[in-house]
């Protein structure tokens, strides 16, 4: 059973013991004489790998979420030990030879795919190198994992913010924000760079100076401590792939993705950038024109006006004034319990899932919720919601696998680590920002994918092993239900007045989403370009900060503020490395996945939803992503739906 309340010492000890047992099992398995078969070799190997992956997943959760700093540290160490186990395993040539000797003549397709992916993973880790080089790649891989964790930990532990001289500096912010940010004894109010403070201030704060200062702090999170970590990471990754015979890390990172080659990614990003030319100009002109109403002599937008910030101040103003959408008013209809229960109801209607509170396992923090998930009365998994920010906790939003889930080996479990809810009020009383509701749905889309796919036979055919540039398609598709009028109307109710969100407000909200959209996508294009570019360069003599500035100015078409050190908190540079483009590539697919629902005229068409779950989510990584999509659409996906979306409503109404 999974326990989340271990002390640092207990976690260390239990983790070390469990890893030792798995190490023994692996040695025994490697020593087993042939002939090797699916039953006598692959099955036991799979068990070992899943166990170690789950030790690492549990430890990783403790590292990212445990309130106790010592336990977080122990979680980090254990997670790195599990990574080291995998790094060693992947270059174990005895195992490799045994796996390759297995006769797959009578095996089912899932098993064949599982073995293919396992073999490719071991090859890409260096199993075919000579012994001295194998030692080198393992050492480098271990160092890379350590550095990636350090990079993440530095971002999570950042404690930046600004001090505002009294409530006047927070003009424009909603009343519930003001009531949870009262002045201290000295009359001053501290605003942190954590999301529940940052997003409202950037969207509503009328005081441009406060927005400027807060954005500057935010774009200096983990600076300067992450710069040397990044230098090491780039150098080690470069050395790692050179030992394997690849020209650069980007080439390596992209090789097993849908795109296959960095060139394909670069052309894809150029294509989107070109598509954005006209709508981004419209965005700029509209936002600037609105700014000039307040500041007639303004000649350009500043970063804190919303150029660099999706959902920024002037986009919010335009939505209010031209579309009648006051997102502060929207908060009234979005109390957290209603949103959460709305999600559960939606999953019942779409996929026949039931979420029941799980109370028998002690959790790592009192604000965390757990739910057992059932379909037709049969348990299919468990999920955890940890949505309140805390010091030292993961400070972005993501789904973390807690347990893999395989047929005959326990059910999948996943945790949403997000920061939507206020630290100052109980979760049940917190109202959500609409943009956070969309993010909640996004992360929930990952969770569904995990819960529905975690019933296969092999670790290497689970969701974690589908091409990574597909992984953001189910999540981005699921965001659409948070934008669906019929779905919103069901749960968005103001508990104080009993009033349901007015349908014309939802219609205007949907239309208003075009404001600032091109800027938001352009920002993604920039980050994706940077991620690809930084891993395509020779790290010798590379100044990452300078490259960041160059790529920023090329893509965004405006100067980069030298006061910012945004690169230090760009957390995706570790896990996603060169493939931040994943979000955009997956968005293109997600837009097309939406078309069968649109053809039915309803996002809540049960038959389409069930077919989507069956063809796209449930198979996990057991089929190539393009085939999952083809089975659902009945054709290959295209760029068309995405292009229509980028250009839709991009001129003022
Ligand atoms: Zn995602």
Description:
With 653 residues, the chain is of the alpha+beta class. 57% of the residues lie in helices and 6% in strands. It has helices at residues 8-31, 38-65, 69-90, 93-101, 109-125, 131-156, 175-179, 195-204, 208-218, 226-243, 249-255, 262-294, 313-323, 327-332, 336-351, 434-453, 472-482, 485-491, 503-512, 517-534, 544-556, 572-575, 582-593, 595-600, 606-617, 625-633, 640-647; strands spanning 161-164, 189-192, 353-357, 369-375, 378-386, 398-403, 413-417. A five-stranded mixed beta sheet has the order 3-4-5-7-6. A hairpin with a 2-residue loop joins strand 4 and strand 5 (378-386). The longest helix is centred in the middle third of the chain and has 33 residues, at 262-294. The model has no long low-confidence stretch (mean pLDDT 95). The chain binds zinc ion.
Write a brief caption for the model.
The chain has helices at residues 8-31, 38-65, 69-90, 93-101, 109-125, 131-156, 175-179, 195-204, 208-218, 226-243, 249-255, 262-294, 313-323, 327-332, 336-351, 434-453, 472-482, 485-491, 503-512, 517-534, 544-556, 572-575, 582-593, 595-600, 606-617, 625-633, 640-647; strands at residues 161-164, 189-192, 353-357, 369-375, 378-386, 398-403, 413-417. By secondary structure, the protein is an alpha+beta fold.
Task: Considering the chains and any ligands shown, give keywords for the structure.
single chain, 653 residues, alpha+beta, five-stranded mixed β-sheet, binds zinc ion
